[in-house]
Design a protein that fits this description.
single chain, 105 residues, alpha/beta, Rossmann fold, 4-stranded parallel sheet, 5 helices, 43% helix
Length: 105
């Protein structure tokens, strides 16, 4: 399965340097919506990585995708961007792990 990245230009470049070939530079979070929909319908895509700031702006669509998917893929992982990690009340990655394995970490 493929890894895809939807991120700001600096973060996307970092992933390209790490060898990820499916990357999209997004300056406006609204531009991420059609890309996210395309990746969700692509069965070859197993992991979608996006930055926390982009994800927060398209949270409703991410939640819809997570509710619609039949299995665990594609997994949407949110990473900090160059500005650092965001302080959150609920950690989406922790919730994903809890849902997948049923254990609170």
């Amino acid at each position: 399965m493929d890894i895809a990245v939807i991120a700001d230009p600096d973060t996307a470049t970092g992933f390209r340097l790490a060898g990820v070939t499916r990357t999209w530079d997004v300056s406006d979070p609204a531009d991420a919506l059609p890309i996210l929909d395309e990746l969700f319908s692509d069965e070859a895509c197993g992991i979608i990585i996006t930055t926390e700031r982009i994800a927060d702006n398209i949270r409703e669509r991410i939640d819809e995708i997570n509710e619609k998917k039949k299995g665990i893929t594609p997994i949407i992982v949110e990473v900090p961007d160059k500005q650092g990690a965001m302080v959150r009340e609920i950690d989406p990655l922790r919730e994903l792990i809890k849902k997948a394995i049923g254990v609170e970490m």
